[in-house]
Every structure is written in C-alpha cells, then in structure tokens.
Amino acid sequence: MNIEYLKTFLQVVQLGSFEKVAKINYQSQRAISKQITHLENELGTKLFDRSSNKIFLTPQGRVFCSSAQDIINNLNDAIADLHYLDDKEGKILRVGYFSAFEGKIVQKSLYSLMNEEPQVNIVIHEESNERLMQNVINGNLDVVFSINYGKTCVPESSSLSNTVVYRNNMVMGVSKLNPLSQERVLLPEMIKSIPIIYYCPENSTFLLECFLASLVKIPDHQEIKRVSSTEQMHMLVSLNKAIAFYPSGLISRNEMLNDSEVKYCEFCDNDSQNYEIVAVYKRDNKNKMLKKLINILNKDKSNF
Asked: Which of 61, 198, 282, 285 has the smallest number of CB atoms closer than 10 Å to its CB?
C-alpha cells in the first residue's frame, strides 16, 4: 500500500476538501482525487461520498480513518527508532513491555539507568508477548518485561535468560453494582458464568492461555475476552459488564482503597493466582546498558 496515499487520505479527512489538499501539496485536484481512487480500489470499498462539490466520509471511511492514522504513527515511530542507531557511542537500549501494568517497573528501572547513564538512548515498544519474545530472539530488542502467570512467558528451548523482578498475587476486580463485591474472597463457582476480560494491546492468545491455565477449577469457562486498553477494561468492570483480574501491587494501594466503583477481591485459589514480572534477554547480549539495567533490577527488587 502506498504510504503517500494514506497521508493524502488523512489530509482530506482533516481539511474536508480535495481542493485544499491539492493546494498545500502543490498538486492538481485531479491528482488528489486519483490517489484516493487508487486507495479505494486497493481496499475494495468507497471511503468518500462525492456529490455537489462536497465530500463526506462513508461509514467504511470513518472506520478506516483510525487505522490509517495508526499505520502512519507506527511508521513514524519506526523511523525515529532507526535514528537512534546513529548514536556514535553505542549507548542504546531497546526495551519492550507487555502491558501498562508492568509499566511502573519499567519506568522506575529506566529512570534509575538514565540517572547513571544520562547519554543512553532508550527505545520503548509495547507489544504482545509473542512479538516481544521473537524480537528478543531476533536481536531487535535487548530486554523485554513480561509476566509469568499460569504459564511461563519464555518459549521452550529458547536461548533466553530471565530475571524475576517482582512477585505478587492477582486480585479480581468486581463492580460495586455486583452483589459479589460484598464478598472478601471469591470462589471459582461464583464466577463460572460471568464474562472475564483481560487487557492486551495487540491480538494475542498468550494471556488467554494464562487464564485457562490459572483457572484450573473452572476449565469450561467460555467467556474470557480481550480488550485493547486498560481504560476500556476498567470501564467495563466498573459498569458491571464483566470482571477482570488485576495484578496486586502494580495498582497502588491508594487506588484500590479509593476506587468508589470497583472492589478488589481475593480469589480463593491463591496458589494458581501467583504471578511474576520478569525481565527477559539473550544470554549472549553484550550491550553494556543491558548489563547495567539488569544490575539495577536485581538491586531494586525489594523497592517494588
């Protein structure tokens, strides 16, 4: 797909006119219209309704708009990452993490690293566990933060090492609109028919497999679904549309105590609800910044 056509499409959406886009790009209106037509032909659908000198986004165009913006943003991020490789001193550290919850650990450890090495260039990616592990194996990332929960996040027979940086238990978030919020401890049979949601930024089966492995006492649960943001997850829980596991310790105690809409309950099967946050990296990675970061993580374990 021609990236310039995507940029033209987004400009037309923003300015609402082929003519205005043509003027700012020093092109003819016909050229702009032709680019949009090429894009529509490639997608197999109309993006704009054109009539009486006015254009309007079709329903398909409105849906595609956010995807087109994501593609451009991801491309710009990739280009910015490549520019870090021009660093003559080689003080580059490429870091990936799995979800916003371990972001607290990532942020604290990288802050400590930058305090010791102010010149370090840090590239950060949030990706699915599958992509994180593959990118470490391929050498595209130096270190990634993920979770061992129900199953290990590290592929079998890999050359990866991992350092445990935090341990705790999962708790279950339940809307205070739900009678279950009156319970201190939830039992497996109480949640057997209630939808369970989990957060992952990309389409991934990893956390689904983790839940199925950790909920051994309700193996036939059919209502475990992914949402793409922590905000969406918390909103659905607070409105009593679903329940969700939250990593205790990675949501602050103040948040848990002051949340007026969600109750965080223990789950009776605590042995299966243990989780670990781990830093994963290749054993033969010679990056000095990586070694410093691992030292910081080992030293700061007790502070999380």
From this structure: 285
β-bridge mates for residue 168, sequence order = 275
CB-based contacts of 146, cutoff 8 Å, min separation 6? 97, 98, 102, 129, 132, 133, 153, 277, 278, 280
Percentage of residues of the chain with pLDDT beyond 70: 88
Backbone angles phi, psi at 36, to 5 degrees: -65, -40
Q: What are phi and psi of 45, to 5 degrees?
A: -155, 155
Q: Which residues pair with 170 in a beta bridge?
A: 247
The secondary structure of 277-291 as a DSSP string is EEEEEETT---HHHH
Q: What is the pLDDT of residue 15?
A: 83
Q: Degrees (nearest 5) of the Cα angle 92, 97, 101? A: 135
DSSP-derived pairing of the beta strands 185-186 and 92-97: unpaired
Least confident of 8-22, 50-64, 112-126: 50-64
Q: Are strands 274-282 and 143-148 parallel, antiparallel or unpaired?
A: antiparallel
Instruction: Please tell me the number of Cα atoms within 13 Å of 137 on its side-chain side.
Output: 12
Residue 249 and residue 165 in contact, taking contact as beta carbons nearer than 8 Å: no
**H/E stretch holding 62:** helix 59-84
Residue 290 near residue 183 (C-beta atoms within 8 A):
no
Closest residue by Cα to residue 184 from 119, 107, 266:
266
Average pLDDT, the chain: 84
- In one-letter notation, the amino acid at residue 93 is L
Beta strands in the chain, from DSSP E residues, in sequence order: 48-51, 54-57, 92-97, 121-126, 143-148, 160-175, 185-186, 196-199, 224-227, 243-247, 262-267, 274-282
What would the pLDDT profile of 253-295 be if each residue is shown by its tens digit? 666 666 789 999 988 765 678 899 999 999 889 899 999 999 9
Task: Return the structure tokens found at 186.
Answer: 């939830």
